[in-house]
Structure formats: C-alpha cells, structure tokens
Amino acid sequence: KQTGYTGLDYGFVNTASTRSEITYIDGDEGILRYRGYPIEQLAEKSTFLEVAYLLINGELPNESEYGQFTNDIRRHTLLREGLKPLFQALPDSAHPMSVLSSAVAALATYYEDSLDVHDPEAVEINTIRLLAKLPVLAAYAHKKSIGQAFMYPDNSLGFVDNFLMLNFATYAEEYEPNPVLSRALERLLILHADHEQNASTSTVRLVGSTEANIYASVSAGISALYGPLHGGANEAVLNMLSEIKESGEGVGRFVERVKNKEDGVKLMGFGHRVYKSYDPRAKLVKESADEVLASLGVHDPLLEIAMELEQHALNDSYFQDRRLYPNVDFYTGIIYKAMGFPTRMFTPLFAIGRLPGWLAQWREQNQDSKSKIGRPQQLYLGATERDYPAGRDFS
Ligand code: CMC
Prior knowledge:
CATH topology of the largest domain: Citrate Synthase, domain 1
Number of domains: 2
Shape: globular
Pfam families: Citrate_synt
Bound molecules: carboxymethyl coenzyme *A
Strand content: under 5%
Active site: 272, 329
InterPro entries: Citrate_synth-like_lrg_a-sub (IPR016142), Citrate_synth-like_sm_a-sub (IPR016143), Citrate_synthase (IPR002020), Citrate_synthase_AS (IPR019810), Citrate_synthase_bac-typ (IPR024176), Citrate_synthase_sf (IPR036969), Citrate_synthase_typ-I (IPR010953)
Strand order of the largest sheet: 1-2-3
Helix content: 40-55%
Largest sheet: 3 strands, antiparallel
Structural class: mainly alpha
Keywords: Acyltransferase, Transferase, Tricarboxylic acid cycle
Order of helices and strands: EEEHHHHHHHHHHHHHHHHH
Distance between the termini: 33 Å
CATH class of the largest domain: Mainly Alpha
C-alpha cells in the first residue's frame, strides 16, 4: 500500500511550491519582469543596488531610501579579520564556489542574531551584511586562487567598482575604473538578480522553510547554483568553446555529437525549463558582449565559435523541435573573460547577481502566513516488509 502519495512529478515540472509577488516570467513569449518592471528597462536604466532594493522591498527606492540603502551596504563591506584564515585553510586550487559556500555558511558564526529568523531588525541587518560581504568573499576566493594578498574594500568606490578593484588591484591607488566595463558588469548583475523558483532559489526556500538562518539558506543556494545545469553552465560554456577551438573538430561536427547524444554531450548555454523561446536575458548579454569586446579592442575567436554554434542550432530541427534557444549563460563567459576573470570565477559572479533574489524570496517566504516546512512526497518502489535473516549476528 502506498501511503501519502498524491502524484509523481520529476523535477517539479508541474508543481508550484509557493505563491510569489517578486518575479514574473512568460516562457513562451520570452518575458521577464521584476516586481512588474520589464528586464530590458531595468538593464538599461537601473543600478544593481536599486534592483536589489526593488526585489527585496517590492518598490523602487526614493532618493533618500536609495542613499540610505547604498550607504548601509558600504558600511558593512569589511570582513572580520578572524574569518580570513578560513581561506588559508583551503587549497589554492579550491574552486571559488566551494570557498564561497563555506565562507557564507561561516558568516553565521559571527552574526548569531541571524538565528532569530522572526526578528525583523535582525533579518534587515543580515540582509545588508550579505549584500555587502558576498562580493568581498568572492574577490578573496579569486585572490587566493592566484596567490595574491587580499585588498581592503575602498568605500569611496561604488559597489561594482569596489568589487572590480578587490579582484584586480594589488594596491588601492592602482585601480582605475573603466566605465564601459563597470556598466557592463552592473547590467549583468541586474540580469541575474532573480528568476523565480529555479533550483537555487527553491533550495534557499527549502532550507529557509526549516527556519534555518539566512546565511545557511544562501550557502545552500550557492551550492545548488554550482552545478553545470544551473549557474555552473557559464563556466561549462567557456570550457566547451575552448575545447571546440583546441580540438579543431569544427562546430558542425560538435553539433552532430550533441544531436546524437554522444557521451551525453550537450550544447551548454542552450535550453531552459521555462523559456521555450529566446531567453530575454541572452539578447541583452549578447549586446553587452559586443560592446565590451569593441571597447577593449579584443578579438576573441571564442565569440565567433559561439555565434557559429548559435546559428547552427537555431537552424537545426533538433533544437527547433525541442524549442532550445541560447540562455543567459551562453555569452556571459566571453564578457567575464574579456574583463580578466578566470573561468572558475564565472559562477561566483552569477551568485553575486542572484543574491538579491535569494534574499527577497527567503524574506517573502518568512513573511508568508501560509508557508510551511518543505517536505516533498515520494513514490516508494522498494522492498515490501521482510524479516531480518535468522542466525545472522554482526554485533
Ligand atoms: N543540448 C542538447 N539537448 C538538450 C539541451 C542542450 N543544452 N537541453 C535540452 N536538451 C534536450 C534534452 O536532451 C531533451 O531531449 P529528448 O526529448 O530527446 O530527451 C529535450 O531537449 C528536453 O530537455 P530536458 O532535459 O527535458 O529539459 P529540462 O527543462 O529538464 O532542462 C536544462 C533544462 C537547462 C537543464 C537543459 O536545457 C540543459 O541541460 N541545458 C544545458 C545547461 C545550461 O545551459 N544550463 C543553464 C540554464 S539557464 C541559467 C540557469 O537558470 O542557471
């Protein structure tokens, strides 16, 4: 007899786990809106911290709210010195996503007020702390991987420039902002800021539903994002493009291997559970890629391979029949590479972008009177009752 079983839905394709007022997606029409605002308008006109405020609080900030919010974040960028040896304990070869999820989980040990998930003031201050500190932790993971000393945040810089300085300067005065790169990164962060109930956000909600603190929940979200089918796809795309270039096999032959599902090979950066037309973010990312490469005067042969792959796929019935289009991860890596980030930093950049969404969704759930601990059903297919064999004794 099956007990408690009401339906089987692998991958939650048909199951809504929550109501939400944060992000709207129409996958057939390629529409994405944060709190009602079209992604195209936010990407063009807004800043990342304004979008973070919007996602978290539901409305765009007025000037004084924006000033207060950005100032609060600026004031919390410093990390406790005691946290830094955590980085030294890990090998230089550590993947920055592993470093990041560990460091975020460890932050909870410094901010135990986060344990009271029903105290609005504690939720507020720990929201600010996470927004301020995650970019610093990511930059330190990067610095550690290249064997360089950590930089202190320079709070005279804006959010994006501070992050770029922490990654690329070896002393503060050395950093010279490049407005084209800063704006491109700001745009990319905005494009990643939320995407309703994707795997990492659902993870944040599931962990949060147990009333675990916000750091534990976000750390779990970072772990879920790490995988190549989710945020890790941006790293996987660049590896795929580099392999196509180095092997010399040619785009046509690679696409044939994808279609024949040889060795499970996929066209990374293509396909989406929700978008069955062009991912609206991918269009905007491609525009940024063109702008950044032109402004740096970079000619990247990987961009040509990516464009050739896209054309092949869009004109091929395998991809047309399955409604597979480029997703947000297809072109981002080319931009991050041009900015000077190593491939392994691509997914941490996604995590920084997605953080406001995780925080907004965690807080929405926390305030929803209908929310309950997440606890999926299963369809049990194992053995029926049987007796432990007589005469067996391992004690
Ligand atoms: N390359 C080749 N075939 C694909 C691809 C791909 N990228 N994506 C889906 N398919 C095929 C799949 O094999 C299946 O074929 P068939 O019907 O013959 O069995 C069909 O299309 C339907 O795919 P699915 O696996 O049922 O789709 P899903 O909704 O479960 O998976 C996905 C969505 C994003 C995991 C998948 O499209 C994929 O693995 N894409 C590559 C990884 C990637 O780019 N991920 C980033 C997603 S966007 C950013 C984010 O949210 O993190």
